[in-house]
């Protein structure tokens, strides 16, 4: 079998070329002599390129809204999907969207009401399908009201707008929220309404938020920089975790092992658009490997491929085989970032963390 076919099969099995060449440290895999610092810089640079490619970006986004001015729940990661520390795995190359955060602006309503109210205008993202939406939450920061000693009741409606025939204005209540919060964040579930809007291909919307029990003339919603309202869309995600046991590198370890490699987004100058995490442990593989005859006895899918080829060639060709310490299993990286449209998105990028190493 042509060695190029072997390489192609390995690539198809998610052992990507960059993960062999950059995340593995075997001298047989990297031509030329590089210093440890040069290898580290090369690995970090390739991690940067992988992040951009998996986000389908050609360059880092141009962000108009400073990350440090985001509402506190977003900046502190309170909106992250459950299990964000351990995202499930999936066999794909590009990142998968798990969350979208939209920032409405205060707008005008076509009609008024008997209760203090505020209108929030926003546009739904074009890349979210209705069947993908699992949870939608409106977050707003409630300011104090003289009647806060009692529970306050908020009514959220689709603001009055012209119907499709432009014949009459309509207002449709979509949620009622009773809260005992005096001052702080309030969350309202709006998934049903948002799915209906997405099914109808309607992207521009205005929410009418009224407080039926407040004494103030204006609904007590804050638009302060750190307290401005936002809408979170959570989308479906399914997958399975893959983990492998590996030898961690130590001061006296010479055989194939996993070496720490921390990527700091602040040091890269990316902390102005990546909100969470501040950095992550990518790891890489290094160390010596046993002769190919020993490697071919190992029991794994990739070793089975090597074994078949190893025993199909002549003894002279067998001598050319030089095993390399390389990643064998990976896990995902979960990012919360701001794009050029000032929308915050949560995505899971597959195969970004080396979980285990082996001789290939």
UniProtKB/TrEMBL annotation:
Which ranges carry the TGF-beta family profile domain?
240-360
Q: Which SUPFAM superfamilies match?
A: Cystine-knot cytokines
GO cellular component terms attached to this protein's record: extracellular space
InterPro entries (alphabetical): Cystine-knot_cytokine, TGF-b_C, TGF-beta-rel, TGFb_CS
In its keyword annotation, does this UniProt entry include Transcription?
no
Q: Please list the GO terms describing molecular function.
A: cytokine activity; growth factor activity
Instruction: Could you list this entry's UniProt keywords, alphabetically sorted.
Output: Disulfide bond, Glycoprotein, Growth factor, Secreted, Signal
Stored PANTHER family: DAWDLE, ISOFORM A, TGF-BETA FAMILY
Family the entry assigns: Belongs to the TGF-beta family.
In its UniProt entry, what is this protein called? Inhibin beta B chain
């Amino acid at each position: 079998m042509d060695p190029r076919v072997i390489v192609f099969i390995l690539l198809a099995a998610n052992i990507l070329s960059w993960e062999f060449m950059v995340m593995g440290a075997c001298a047989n895999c990297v031509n030329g002599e590089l210093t440890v610092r040069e290898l580290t810089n090369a690995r970090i640079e390739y991690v940067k390129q992988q992040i951009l490619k998996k986000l389908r970006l050609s360059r880092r986004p141009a962000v108009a809204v400073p990350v440090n001015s985001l509402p506190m729940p977003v900046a502190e990661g309170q909106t992250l999907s459950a299990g964000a520390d351990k995202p499930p795995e999936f066999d794909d190359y590009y990142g998968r969207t798990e969350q979208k955060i939209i920032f409405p602006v205060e707008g005008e309503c076509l009609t008024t009401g008997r209760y203090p109210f505020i209108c929030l205008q926003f546009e739904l993202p074009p890349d979210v399908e209705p069947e993908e939406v699992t949870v939608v939450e409106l977050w707003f920061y409630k300011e104090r009201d003289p009647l806060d000693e009692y529970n306050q009741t908020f009514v959220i409606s689709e603001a009055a707008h012209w119907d499709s025939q432009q014949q009459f204005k309509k207002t449709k209540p979509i949620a009622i929220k009773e809260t005992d919060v005096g001052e702080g964040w309030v969350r309202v579930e709006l998934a049903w309404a948002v799915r209906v809007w997405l099914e109808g291909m309607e992207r521009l919307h205005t929410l009418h938020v009224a407080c039926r029990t407040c004494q103030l003339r204006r609904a007590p919603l804050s638009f302060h920089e750190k307290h401005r309202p936002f809408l979170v869309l959570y989308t479906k995600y399914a997958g399975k975790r893959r983990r492998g046991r590996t030898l961690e590198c130590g001061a006296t370890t010479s055989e194939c092992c996993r070496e720490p490699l921390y990527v700091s987004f602040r040091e890269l100058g990316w902390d102005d658009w990546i909100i969470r995490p501040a950095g992550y442990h990518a790891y890489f593989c290094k160390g010596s490997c046993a002769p190919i005859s020993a490697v071919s006895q190992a029991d794994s899918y990739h070793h089975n491929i090597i074994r078949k080829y190893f025993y199909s060639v002549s003894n002279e060709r067998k001598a050319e085989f030089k095993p390399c310490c390389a990643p064998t299993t990976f896990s995902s990286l979960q990012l919360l970032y701001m794009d050029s449209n000032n929308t915050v998105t949560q995505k899971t990028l597959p195969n970004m963390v080396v979980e285990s190493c082996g001789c290939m």
